Amino acid sequence: MSDPETTPGTAAHQKIDTSVPHSARIWNYWLGGKDNYPVDEEAGDAYTDVFPGIVTIARSSRAFLQRNITYLVAEAGIRQFLDIGTGLPTADNTHEVAQRIAPESRIVYVDNDPMILSHARALLYSTPEGATAYVDSNVLDPERVLAAAAATLDFSRPTALILSNILGHIADHDEARSIVKRLMDALPSGSYLSINDGSRGFDPGFEQAQDGYNKSGAVPYNLRTIEEITSFFDGLELLEPGVVSVTQWRPDTDAPDARIIAEHGGLARKP
């Protein structure tokens, strides 16, 4: 296994604040990870007291992403991934799923959190045949992200862009759409876009819990309607079954029947 490349940026000079809960660490806690602090566990438990289903949403979101990547590598032949809004590493990260099937796969992770940066070198390893890099940058600056990622990825070749639970952190919907378009415009025909985000209009309990969380002083995460999530794929060819609850996107044949949850996503190809 080879060490990943790490591009220092904004997070490199920030300190990790363990006195206030952090969304990435709370998400890690819900996924069953260990990279969190008591303050994150307290916030996560307070959320689940209002809406226990958040753990199902977190884990179903992760499973959706793993099925996306498996399809992209095994069936679509994709060998390059740009995963923006990486979050803290857990089991079966993008590079692990992709390189398990195709060891030559190349992956660039992007995030701008100091704690995630601190874990990048320790946890994000690559097969010798492939490559794994970490870029310390912000989704709000797509041109900088693309420039840094180009050191590892060849953007003349089809690439999968992964935006998993990151667009909800961009409050303005038009701005979020613009960022997605700017990123996809830089990728060639045959590239793919994978998006999943929390959805509004399906579970009042989830909406109440999330609205309360947003008012707590934590970095807000904005739920969107299925129409708004679908609009991120404008101009692309959505794969069947389209934008659906993540539990309904090509579930494993041996998976138990899963109910619809308030987390929607899809996968689309750039013509």
TrEMBL record:
GO terms for biological process: methylation. GO terms for molecular function: methyltransferase activity. Signal peptide: none annotated. Keywords: Methyltransferase, Transferase. It comes from the Bacteria. Pfam families: Methyltransf_19. This is SAM-dependent methyltransferase. It comes from Streptomyces pratens.
